[in-house]
Amino acid sequence: MQEQLDQSIRLILIDDHQLFREGVKRILDMEKNFEVVAEGDDGDEVISLVEENDPDVVLMDVNMPGTNGVEATRDLIEKHPDVKVLILSIHDDESYVTHVLKTGAAGYLLKEMDADALIEAVKVVGQGGAYIHPKVTHNLIKEYRRLAYGDDSVDSTAEIGYKEVEYRKPLHILTRRECEVLQLMTDGYSNRMIGETLYISEKTVKNHVSNILQKMNVNDRTQAVVESIKKGWVKVR
User: CA–CA separation, 124 vs 121, rounded Å?
Assistant: First the structure.
């Protein structure tokens, strides 16, 4: 895993708001293993920029004049399936997110993100994983349960598959503190919000999240949350 983290990730930024794009680039430039190789302000530019610069990840705004991010992602994935697209958006509506992810995007990040979330998302997607903003993950899970089971209630069980799974903390694998962090991840909390809720530093939260992923043998937060719900380890509330 450490060897993967040390590999350079080449990026292209596509966003029609130059000020926002400059802010994102400034954050990415602080990471020694990130290299922003090109920028653009229109979805029409994406394919040519990719072919000229051979990036690992394309960070793309979803709402742009001309070809929007949804159409551009679909076209790009068809021609260059190895390129990972991380969508940047202001929309957290679950139906909208689902529509965007169906185009083949590997990640979905809200523009209200903090710097740590941006860096984490790029690392996860650049290494071949999937990243969905914690707030969006929570909304998607709630909508999935509502559509699949007509379940809008909050109780001590989680219906997954064809059976009802009793809620129980995974104390056979995780510490009590890690169980608390896992539940807050399911609730859609960012690392900063988890730290504020549990009165611990953001660095400590990151260590807990890393331990959770390792113990659960999953690659990212989204997988951890989904698996935890399936096993009845967390409440969807």
Answer: 5
In eight-state DSSP terms, residue 167 is: P
Classify the C-alpha dihedral 69-220-159-193 as positive or negative: negative
Pairing between strand 163-166 and 157-160?
antiparallel
Residues in the chain where the model's pLDDT stays below 50: 1-5, 153-165
CB 50 within 8 A of CB 80: yes
Name the helix (H) or strand (E) containing 88: strand 84-89
What's the first-to-final CA gap in the chain, in angstroms? Answer: 33
Degrees, nearest 5: CA angle 138-2-114: 40
C-alpha dihedral over 100, 105, 108, 111, to 10 degrees?
Answer: -90
Give residue 168's identity as a one-letter amino acid code.
R
* Alpha carbons within 13 A on the beta-carbon side of 21: 19
- Check residue 145 and give its pLDDT: 61
Instruction: At 27, list the tokens.
Output: 């954050």
Instruction: Give the C-alpha separation, 64 to 69, whole Å.
Output: 7
Q: Which of 128, 126, 91 is nearest to 108 (CA)?
A: 91
pLDDT of residue 14: 94
Helix (H) or strand (E) segment spanning residue 177: helix 176-186
pTM of the model: 0.67
What residue type is 210 in one-letter code?
S
